[in-house]
Structure formats: structure tokens, C-alpha cells
Amino acid sequence: MNRKIKGLTMLAVMLGIFVTLMASSTAYAADAKILETNVYEGNIYIFVKGISELPPEPAIQIGNTVCRTEQISSASFAQMNSFMKTLILVDNSISIPEENRVDFQEILKGIISNSNENELIKICTFSKETECLCDYTSDHSALESAVDGMDYNDQDSYLSDVLYNAVSELKAEDTYECRRIIILSDGADDNYIGYSNDEVCRYVESSQYPVYTVGIPRKNNAQQLETLFSFSRAAKTDYFYMDGSIASGDIVNAIMTDQTGICIKLTPDEALKDGSNKSLLLKLGGAEGDVELKTSVDMPFGNGSAVLPEPESETEEETADSLPSIGPESINMSVNDENIEKDGEIPIYVWILIALMLFIIIVLIAMVVILLLLMRKNKGDIPDTPLTRKIPQPIKNTVLTVMNKNTRSQEKKHLGDYVGDSEKKFWHKKRIVLRNLDNPNKIYEAPIRDAVKIGRSSSQDICIYDDNEVSSRHCEILLRGGLMYLKRIECRNGTYYEGINLSTDEERPIISGGKIKMGKYQYSVELIDSDDGR
Hints:
Elements: H1 2-31, E1 33-40, E2 43-49, E3 59-62, E4 65-66, E5 72-76, E6 84-91, H2 98-113, E7 119-126, E8 130-137, H3 140-148, H4 159-172, E9 178-185, H5 197-207, E10 211-215, H6 222-235, E11 239-241, H7 248-255, E12 261-266, E13 277-286, E14 289-298, H8 316-321, H9 348-380, E15 399-404, E16 409-414, H10 421-427, E17 430-436, E18 443-448, E19 451-455, E20 462-463, E21 475-480, E22 483-488, E23 495-497, E24 500-501, E25 507-510, E26 515-518, E27 521-529
Parallel strand pairs: 6-7, 6-9, 9-10, 10-11, 15-18, 19-20
Antiparallel strand pairs: 1-2, 2-12, 3-4, 3-13, 5-12, 7-8, 13-14, 15-16, 17-18, 17-27, 19-21, 21-22, 22-25, 23-24, 23-26, 26-27
């Protein structure tokens, strides 16, 4: 038996080493993301963050056409003369509380102080239109002076129109540089005679510019914040809810991750320059891991003539001349030919990596064989008499407490239990999930169409039976038009949302991720799709 335990221990150690090696090689892939794709003077510029350099043998495909090696070049963000233009839009209405104005100032100065020398920043305030405080510049003193001189005024703000016009101005620029927008506000309203929020979301999504939003919670502004954050979701970028759970420095650090990466320059064949929208596929495999990124690009217009691959006898000087540098003149944008072996030979480090992987696989197989032999030998030594000691029972799965108002009883379901066809049809809707923040093992959930009733009584949709400070009919969560509302019913100990006690029968708008306190405990509330894999 001791040999069996030693074999299991050694196998576990080897598996741990193998998993660690694989995890370190795939971290590179998890961080990689396409920031933006631009077309300039017939070339395509792809800005990818999370990658330190272009791998030796990248595979890049435009539509169904694979780019040749001489059509691909790259430079890191730090090597470029100018790689990014950042437009910052600040809501300077007096509705922004004093303490949040200080937060805005810390965030703005953090972005300025951490920006690269080759990044240009423009700061504007907005109401119905934008007011430029400082045009695009890398002068940190001028930018910080603009932040210090910012005033807050009694005014109406229509972010939808402002953002639509800002994106239009960026699209009108003829440049290869990466561009992004950062918005600080307490919500977004649309002008009834201007662009609707849905129009702006579609426009932002088609433009592919990163749009970061920082939202300030106030009384009765939940819907405006949802609209504000929808702009970031349309741009597939991050948004930040400043309810005290995230520090200004953490927001700055998240936004500044855009400053590390590479710019890949593609020179497509003339035959592909037809003005159509084509898909882009990047397969970047290297020692750091494998990355597969997808996007699309509106191709430039060319003369329509087909271009055949250049003969292999083309000199290195001719190839370099066909790819002008987008960084300083001293930076060579062409692919490093030293990493590519001549005559199609596989580089030596690839053979070393393959040999290492084969060695690990052989060792693991040998360990498994030895372990099986030890187990078989030990099995032969077991006496025929039955075992009398008690076998420990397996640990049960996590339990989700679900209250169903039709059965009027508490039903506990193990994760993965079978659900009938009729119940599946009902659960392919929306669900409310309450997570006990003081006891993370307690999770309550129930399907919702119009409302979910919460209380200590078993007749409620969600029954919190183990808290005697929760009333029999404590509160309800309502769903109208995709928005959630919290309604206090008969509770004697109060119903709180984000620290605010609701009056009886008051309905307060809430957002997914908000915090509700009832009885002894505090809960996070989430609205999820039933078919999202939870």
C-alpha cells in the first residue's frame, strides 16, 4: 500500500509540472486582443495588445487569401512615433457629486501620468455639445492644467449625440493610428430629436473603436447607467461602476493595458483591394503560446489588377523598400528573417520543444503503467474476507436552493440533476440569482417573467427560511422591459438597496450586480439567461 501511495504522489507531481508548463504557455493567448484595425494608404494596420512581438511564422489570412511573409511586418507600440490618440469626454454637470469629481480628477491625472510619449490625449467636457479643454497633445503639464481648470455647470447632457459625433470625427480622420474614447459620466440620456441610444450602439459596434465608460451611481439613475455601459459592451471593452467597490487606480491600470502590444502591417495584393468588407484571421504561434484572433476590415480600393507572388529570388533590399516603416526610421518593420531558417528547415528551438513534450508524455505513460502494475499486485494481496471498516461517503455536490411558487415547497436541486421537458421550456427564459455575500455557499435562484417574491414563507418564489429577521412576505423583484425593480412589501426590518432603505410599496430600479440587504445578510442580485450554462 505504501508503494501505491508513493506512485500516486509521484504521478500527481508530474501532472502538476505538466499543467504548470501548459498554463504558462497559454497565458499569452488569454491576454491577446485586437484593439483596432485601420486602413491607410492601401495598407492594413492591426493593433494587438497583450503580445510583445510578432512570432517568427505568423499565419494571417484576408478572406480566403493567406498573406505571404513579405507582406507582413510589425513594430511594438513603444517603437512607433505615434501609435494612439485618446479622446476623453467628461460630464461636467453639477449632478456629479463633489466626492466623485475628485475621483474623476484622480482618474484623468492617472491616465495622463501613465501615458506613453507617443500617445496623444485630448480632453473635452460635454453637455449638448463638446467643449475642448486641450487638443491632442503629449504635453503632460498642459493636460493636467486642463484637468485642474475644469468647471462643473448647471446643464443638460446628451451623451448619445456627443458620442455619435465624436465617432464620426474619428472615422473621418485619415490615419493609421489606434484611436480610443474614455467617458466619465453619471449616465447617458438621448435627445428626443437626436440620435437614439440604439443607433449609437450600432454605430459604435461598426466603428470598432475601444470605448471605456466610468459610471457614477446616483438616486434613480440606474437606467441611464445601463445605457452608458451599453456603449462599452457594443465596443467590446470594459466599463467601470464606481460604487466604492473599485479604486480609481484600478480603473487607470485596466485602461492603460492598451499601451503594451504590437502593430501588424499588411500590404494586400491589388486583387484584394475591392472596397469590400473582408474577414481577418490571425494565427500567431510561438514559444509563448498560440493565439487565434478574428476581426474584419473594409478593404481599400486599388487598380483591380491581380498581383502574383514575387519570385523567390527577390532581394531583401527590394522587400524592405516595399514596406515603409510606421515607426522611427531606425526601426525596421519587416519580419525578423534571422528567426526563419533557410530552405524551409524547422528552427532548432522547435525540435527542442517537441523533444521536451515527447519526454514528458513518455514519463507520464511510464508512471501510469507502473501505477497500474502496483495496483494489480496490491489487489492480489487483499484477503478474501470482507472489509468491515466503514467506507467514507463522497462529498455531495453544491446545492442550489430554488423556490417554486407552484409547488409551494422548498425544492433543492443538485447541479446537473435531470430537469423535465416542461420545466426546461420554462427555464429557457430569465432567472433571478441571489448570492449571500456573508455566506457564499448560500445561493438562491428562481425563474422570472414578471416578478419574483422573496420572504420567509414557503409560498414565496425564493424562501429564506433560516433568517428570522426576514418577513414572511419581505420584498419583490419586478421585471419590466428588460429592467429590474426592487419593491418593499411588508418587511418590519427594512429592505435596503445599495445602503438605501426603501419605503413600503416603493419600487426602486436596480441593476444586475447590485446589493440588497434584508434581514441579517446582504445579497448580490443577478439577472441571467436560463440557457447561459449556469
